[in-house]
Amino acid sequence: MADLLGGWKLLIIVVIILLLFGATRLPALARALGQSRNAFKSEMKKGEQGEGTTTSTDSTDGASPDDIPKS
Questions:
Q1: What's the Cα-to-Cα distance from 29 to each of 16, 21, 22, 32, rounded to whole Å?
Q2: How far apart are CA 58 and CA 49, in angstroms?
Q3: For the segment 3-47, what is each residue's pLDDT rounded down to a tens digit?
Q4: 60 Cβ partners below 8 Å, 6+ apart?
Q5: 16-25: per-residue pLDDT in tens?
Q6: Contacts for 13 with CB less than 8 Å, ≥ 6 apart
Q7: What is the pTM of this model?
Q8: How many whole angstroms separate alpha carbon 41 and alpha carbon 54?
Q9: Whole-angstrom Cα distance, residue 37 to residue 29?
Q10: How far, in Å, CA of 36 to CA of 42, rounded?
């Protein structure tokens, strides 16, 4: 069980992928996969940077105490 994708099994998988997608489409697929990975990583960095800064909101939605009508 430790050698699940070893040797000839991996070679058979590569041949099947080549037959399914064709040698001409594989570079485009790899390029698209790389671009998707880069976009995902950049969005993750933006999310991590956004977590460090917090914005406080209160129930007055930014209104000052003078803007609230007194009853």
A1: 15, 9, 11, 5
A2: 23
A3: 667 788 888 988 898 888 888 888 888 899 999 999 999 999 998
A4: 67, 68
A5: 988 888 888 8
A6: 5
A7: 0.45
A8: 22
A9: 12
A10: 10
